[in-house]
Structures are given as C-alpha cells and as structure tokens.
Amino acid sequence: MKNNKENFLSVAPMMDRTDRHFRYFIRQITKHTLLYTEMISATAVQNGNKSKLLDFSSDEKPLSLQLGGNDPYTLAECAIIAEDWGYDEVNLNIGCPSDRVQNGRFGACLMAEPELVAKSVEKMQESVDIPITVKHRIGIDECDDYESLKYFVRIVSESGCKKFIVHARKAWLQGLSPKENRNIPPLRYQDVYSLKKDFPHLTIEINGGITNLEQISHHLQFIDSVMLGRIAYNNPYLLATVDKDFYKSSTTPLTRYQIIENILPYVEYWASHGLKLHSITRHLLSLFIGISGTKEWKRYITENSHFIGQDSKAIINALSKIKS
Fold first, then answer.
1. pTM over cut 0.70
2. Where does a domain end: 197, 212, 245?
3. Phi-psi domain of 274 (left: phi exceeds 0; alpha: psi -120 through 50; beta: other)
4. Would you give the end-to-end CA distance of the chain in angstroms?
5. Is residue 157 part of a domain?
6. Which residue has better confidence, 174 or 125?
7. Beta strands in the chain (DSSP E)
8. 3-class secondary structure, 10
9. Any binding-site annotation on 265?
10. Is 66 known to sit in a ligand binding site?
C-alpha cells in the first residue's frame, strides 16, 4: 500500500450527513483521512450566518470546505473566507445533479461549461494559498465520452487546479433523482485511471461504488487517492484500521467502546449548550453494525435522543444493549 504524505483517502461531502458532529465522530476513528463539509452554496457563505455555516473544531482537521456556485468573483470571496476560517482546502462541486442545484446553475450542469469552471478556479486560486480542488462526474447526459472528460480536466487544470475528485459515473440531469444518479449510471473506473495516465502531474482521486479496504488498495495502484461515500456513514467502523493500513500510523485503532468514551465529553459540552442530543447521536447509530445488539442500540438511541435536556447518559444506557 502507498505511504504518502498527501491525503489519499477521504470521506465525501454528503448533504445532511457530513456536518461538524459527524466529522468529530469520524475523527475518533481516523485521524488522517481528509474530511469534507456538506456542500454549502457560495451565496449562503457570502450572505448567511458564517459561524453557523462554517464553524468547526480543530480536531476535525484536515478539513475541506465544499462550495457550490458559478460566479467566479463570489467564489473567490468565499475562498478567502474559508482560508481565514482555517480550512485546509476549498472544493468546488461540479458533480451534484439535483434539480435545486441545477436551478442555481451550479453542480454537475457546469461540466458543460468548462471555461466558466476554469475561470472560477483561477479567481479562487489567485485569492488564496490553500488548494482549490474540483469534484466532478465523468460526464453528463449524452456528453459522456472520454475525450470530453479529458477536455474538461485539461481546461480546468490550466487555470490552476491540481486535484480532481472524479465520481466514476456520469449524471443524467433529467429523469433520475440524485439517489438514482449515485447508483444507476454504470461505473467506469477505467476513465478515471486514464485521466491519471494522461495527466500524470495532477492528483486524481476516484469516487463511486467503493465499499471496502480491498477496493481502496486496488484503486491506489492506478490513481492517487480514493474517496468513500455513504459506506463511511453507514459503516463508519470500516475506517478503524485505515490510519494503520494506509498511513502507516503506529497508533492502535480504538475499539467501538473507546470511540464512544471519547465522544462523551463532546456530547456533554453540546448538551450543556442546548443542543438536542439527536443532532449528534444520529451519526452514531451505525457504529455497532454487525455486533449483536445493534438493533436495540439503534432503537434506544432513536427513542431517547429527541427530548430537550437529554445528555450522555442516554448513550451510556444504550451501550448496555450491545452484547459484546
């Protein structure tokens, strides 16, 4: 396996999942994997409650802010804000196919406008010292041939982007839901491998359909890095050995119980500040996947996390449901 100082493993940005509480939880499992925020629109960063949208714990780093937008100057302003806030990277979303995102003319539909994406990257990179990266599909609709993908990467890379995260499926902008676009279009890993051959000076990261460590190891023979999606949310303990196996860390992986122990003070802090326990515990539900008692753990957590005033005792009580 590679032993690279770069972040060659990451957890994808996922709406309603990769918030700061999930990221803190995952950081108890892996210290080195690059984490992403949920996608945040550039106009929201520009005009909204920046603390609510952007705050994070230093324990979550390394951390990338993913932005959605299409105006180069607004995106450049947001990149400056992200750098000042302490983010390690800014990622531009050119992969989301949802109607809401398309109506805002950003996300996957911008694959049809590589020059605009390039100008956005150029203005962002001119404004900050942290890396500007792009996450995109292998194509959209009928424009899904390799030469079009290669053209997109070439034009955008010439503007200063050195890292491309490629979802190895095309996106249908009409007729498929975002969920269907994550599953129905066939995976074409070879297209991503070909990008690395054609652009050896770029960092090429692969995303889509990767569900275990053996697949990660396989992909790393052909490209630089791997992004995990929903498997990291639905089975987070899959990441328990990645620091040891991929980053050559000498630290012993924590047990599931030790992970919960580590997160209890964090839960107490937020509970004391009026946060509903559910905002944190919803991310913990799948920690004991495959362990006897996991259904009871999930049920107890779910039934006892919505009440105001609940604290870490609910989690401790839920642990008694696990039959280790």
1. yes
2. 245
3. left
4. 32
5. yes
6. 125
7. 9-11, 34-36, 40-41, 63-68, 89-94, 132-137, 163-167, 203-207, 225-228
8. strand
9. no
10. yes
Is residue 86 annotated as involved in ligand binding? no
Among residues 248, 230, 216, 242, the alpha carbon closest in space to that of 289 is found at: 230
Residue-range definition of the domain harbouring residue 94: 9-245
- Confidence label for 163 from pLDDT (cuts 50, 70 and 90): very high
Q: What's 254's DSSP letter?
A: P
The answer to whether the beta carbons of residues 19 and 278 sit under 8 Å apart is no
**Domain end: 199, 223, 245, which one?**
245
Catalytic residues: 96
Report the range of poorest mean pLDDT among 59-63, 263-267, 304-308.
304-308
The answer to whether the annotation marks 167 as part of a ligand binding site is yes
Residue 290 lies in a domain: yes
Q: What is the pLDDT of residue 3?
A: 35
Residues 223 and 74 reside in one and the same domain:
yes
The answer to whether position 2 is within a domain reads: no
Tally of domains within the chain: 2
Is residue 58 located within the same domain as residue 116?
yes
